[in-house]
């Protein structure tokens, strides 16, 4: 399969400047050259991996949403009516559940209601479902609408808007927590699917 190469718009790198050092340089009579140090531009691999990870996050959230659609459709059209050619089922699936106005949030709320109504999860799993599904969408939005950049002294960061400008450092701890959240969400949804 071909690895696609699509145009990307921005790559940011920032450098912190020691203002006191710059002022000392100026005070020493060096008015033409102010040393700002050096920037290591070999950060491309980290930025590339962060973008690849961002694409996987968006795709995994889409896969989760497709599972929501399947659960909701199967709930509305139980086993006896799951014949592929069933007109009502096809209409419901294609024209309602997959419609633009039927958002992730609406589907998530229906999944939680179905889970509660049919007691499809119990105990701690039941309580975690809403939390992890909300977090999945937050992560998806962060990467879909944020800017990945490299900050000198910090590394790769994601700047995004969520009630204000925020920044998340894209380190191994962050990626590990994110992976756990997505895996947990998929496991819980798969449990619901297995019990329908």
Structure explained in plain terms:
With 196 residues, the protein is an alpha+beta fold. The protein has a domain at 45-133 and 172-195. 58% of the residues lie in helices and 10% in strands. It has 6 helices and 4 strands. It has helices at 19-27, 44-76, 87-97, 104-117, 123-145, 172-195, and strands spanning 12-14, 147-151, 155-161, 165-169. It has a 4-stranded mixed β-sheet, covered by helices on one side. A hairpin with a 3-residue loop joins strand 3 and strand 4 (165-169). Helix 5 packs across helix 6 (172-195). 17% of the residues are buried. The model has no long low-confidence stretch (mean pLDDT 84).
Q: What separation lies between the terminal Cα atoms?
A: 36 Å
Biggest sheet, in brief? 4 strands, mixed
Radius of gyration: 24 Å
Structural class: alpha+beta
Helical amount among residues, as a percent range?
55-70%
What's the helix and strand layout?
Layout: E1 12-14, H1 19-27, H2 44-76, H3 87-97, H4 104-117, H5 123-145, E2 147-151, E3 155-161, E4 165-169, H6 172-195
Helix pairs in contact: 2-3, 2-4, 2-5, 2-6, 4-5, 5-6
Features:
single chain, about 200 residues, alpha+beta, 4-stranded mixed beta sheet, 4 strands, about 10% strand
């Amino acid at each position: 399969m071909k690895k696609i190469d699509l145009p990307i718009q921005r790559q940011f790198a920032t450098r912190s400047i020691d203002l006191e050092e710059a002022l000392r340089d100026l005070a020493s009579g060096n008015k033409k050259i102010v040393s700002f140090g050096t920037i290591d531009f070999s950060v491309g691999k980290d930025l590339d991996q962060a973008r690849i990870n961002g694409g996987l996050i968006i795709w995994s959230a889409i896969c989760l949403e497709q599972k929501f659609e399947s659960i909701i459709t199967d709930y509305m059209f139980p086993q006896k009516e799951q014949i592929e050619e069933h007109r009502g089922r096809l209409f419901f699936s294609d024209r309602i559940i997959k419609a633009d106005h039927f958002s992730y949030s609406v589907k998530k709320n229906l999944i939680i209601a179905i889970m509660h109504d049919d007691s499809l999860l119990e105990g701690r799993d039941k309580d975690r479902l809403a939390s992890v599904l909300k977090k999945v969408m937050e992560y998806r939005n962060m990467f879909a609408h944020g800017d990945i950049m490299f900050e000198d002294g910090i590394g790769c960061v994601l700047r995004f808007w969520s009630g204000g400008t925020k920044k998340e450092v894209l380190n191994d701890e962050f990626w590990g927590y994110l992976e756990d959240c997505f895996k947990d969400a998929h496991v819980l949804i798969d449990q619901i699917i297995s019990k329908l």
